[in-house]
Amino acid sequence: MDSAGEPDFWRAKSDPAATDPNTVFPLEGRDILNIPQAKLIAAAATAPALHDLSGNRVSRITRNLVIKSHSYTLPSEANAMILAAKKTSIRVPKVHRSFSVKSTGLYHSMGYIVMDYIDGLSLDRCWNTLAQSTRDDIIEQVADMIVQLQSLELHTPGPLGGGPSQGRWFTPYSVGPFTGALDLQNFFNQRMDKAKCFRRVPKTMPPFDFANSTFALTHLDIAPRNLVLDAGGKVWLIDWAHSGAYPPMLEIANLVSEQDRCKDFYEPLLQRPMYPSLSGSGN
Fold first, then answer.
1. Could you tell me which CATH number the domain at 16-117 has?
2. Interval 27-59: pLDDT, tens
3. Peptide bond before residue 177 is cis, with ω within 30 degrees of 0
4. In the chain, how many H helices and how many E strands?
């Protein structure tokens, strides 16, 4: 589904030792809050990887903990996870530590997040094997997640705590930080003007107007690969790298843009009533 037809270099690698019950993980039994950063950095690079793709690595450092490391991992990701855990009932891995160190790359830093390990299967790996009743329950859970996100209003657009915006809508190199709603509005209108020039959208399409918009916590990468189904049938939402405070319509647009990858997941999800904040949220 999610990765069908993609070349191997776009597929994440996983070390079988990361899920082997006999593996002894490097920081097992240690007090995670008191381990020096240097030890965590070393473990991130050497512990068995659950996910390893283009420098984005999630390593299992104890039976119950993982550490995510990447040059694109910014403080805003952990901030969003902490806020979602505090203000909603969405199942999110608990963040235990997060930090950045100077490095090379786009943001001149390497970011690290220590969080709970979620024992389960991502939906891109198991969706095709699930009974219809299980699929229906999952769709309800994901729709409820979006309802809760859309209901969590925020005042300043962009990643939580500041920084550049990442993801599909913000170019491969990120954009920002935005100074406010007008700055975000101008960015999207500039992109629309270019799209009109190349006839990607109708010339008559009106400009975006975020003057009276409500910004909500958005994940911006809700996809089967980022939804983990545990043994109890509960769904967890992971990978908050693109999250931030944006007009709720962006979450919807992201789902629509992904639906060809797995129609029997996205189409029923998009039919659910899950957008309580849409009124007054701009175009």
1. 3.30.200
2. 999 999 999 999 999 999 999 999 999 889 999
3. yes
4. 7, 11
